[in-house]
Give the backbone structure.
Amino acid sequence: MMRVDTVGAVFDALADPNRRTLIGFLAQRDTATATELAAELPLTRQGIAKHLATLKEAGLVRRRRSGRETRYKLTPEPMTDAIAWMATVGGQWDDRLEALRSHLARGEH
């Protein structure tokens, strides 16, 4: 069963284009630090850290201390619930639109 709170957290986290960009960067590498990510984006290290904290709260990244560094890794599993929710809602709309097409084709308006 889907957990709506997880779906909402994923959508909230992905609503920001900077966080979507961070997800893309993390998808291309095993791990990265906020400093490494800030070197590739027009954001400060502190800004990156705040975005990473939001992604972590949504379960989309995890952090691990490695010596003096904090390394971030993409954990895309929470997106599964969001994708399932979109598929369910999309299917419901497809059914409704098909019923409307059938209704209009029969001239019952």
User: Anything to note?
Assistant: DSSP finds five helices and two strands in the chain. Residues 4-105 form a domain with the Arc Repressor Mutant, subunit A fold (CATH 1.10.10.10). The chain has a mean pLDDT of 88. Strands lie at 61-66, 69-74.
